[in-house]
Amino acid sequence: MLGRTALRSAAQRATAAAHPASRASHHSTAPRRPLGTLAFAAGATAAIVGVAYTLYELKPESFPTVVTPLLAEAASALGPSTQVFIDPTTSTPFPHRLVAPDGKTHLRLVGTGVRTVSFLNIRVYTAAFYVSEPELDAALAGTLAGWEAYAPERLLPSPPSKSTDGGVRGEQLMDTLLEKADAAVIIIPLRNTSLAHLRDGFSRALVARLKNSRVADDLTAASGSEATGAALVDFKSFFPNKNLAKGMPLELYYSAKNRDVTFQLRNEKTRSPDILGTLRDPVLSRELMLSYFSDSAAPSPELVKNVAMGIAREPGSPTAIST
């Protein structure tokens, strides 16, 4: 009996000697990775998760197929034969003609463009620019002051060294149009958003433009800096704390006579217009409209380009189509 026990003990010791790692199998003997490598891996994983979550949140909601509130309004105001222009980038439809909230001013579509953000070029909204018909006809015919011998390059920003015509260009050229013409910017969200988010975007654009030396000089000359500041505060109160669904338009109507901008929504059920408020400060109203044609910070360079092409009646633009 003792002999068997001794043999069994000897066999166990021999096995342990031949496989020393087996007794330490619960404790890793592999060399440890440097902390920097682990931190980099954790950071990369977090970045991938963040991008994936962003894409999940945005979803493929960037392609609305119909904008019924705006189209319904155009049809009721101008008849069921109103034609529709399809934005070539996002397939968003816009009516060729609109009627301003005053019920009298008829506006015609000049161009559309998409707004994108971040290095991922995420599509946020599609915008359309409209101009009152008499002034647009004069600009198209080259009879509007400042728009004679117009070419698309004149509305596009370019370094002064490359300007060969010596005339007014870029946003200054658009300013001459807004001196005489009513206009509208229609924003169609390509994903669900909020009015507060859009309000903050407008506010940042206005604050940035108020720092422009030309605008500052205008305010000084008019002794209107305090009034403009108060108007900016009042403007922020226009926007209730509510969401704006994908495909529901936010409409900005500019009056050249009154130098103001009226903000309008559509009721999701009745499609009737719902005015949020009117920005009555002339400087803020002008600068808000001009911000879409900024020489250095236009929210949609595609919109600027397509409007420039539209005023020249280039093929494929809304003005090249008989409506």
From TrEMBL:
Listed transmembrane segments: 35-56
SUPFAM superfamilies assigned to the protein according to its UniProt record, in alphabetical order: Chalcone isomerase
Ranges of residues in domain Chalcone isomerase: 106-307
Protein name listed in UniProt: Chalcone isomerase domain-containing protein
Pfam families hit by this protein: Chalcone_2
Alphabetical UniProt keywords: Membrane, Transmembrane, Transmembrane helix
Domain of life: Eukaryota
Taxonomic source organism: Rhodotorula mucilaginosa (Yeast)
Gene Ontology MF terms: intramolecular lyase activity
PANTHER family assigned to the protein according to its UniProt record, in alphabetical order: FATTY-ACID-BINDING PROTEIN 2
Compositional bias segments (type: Low complexity): 1-23
Ranges for region Disordered: 1-30
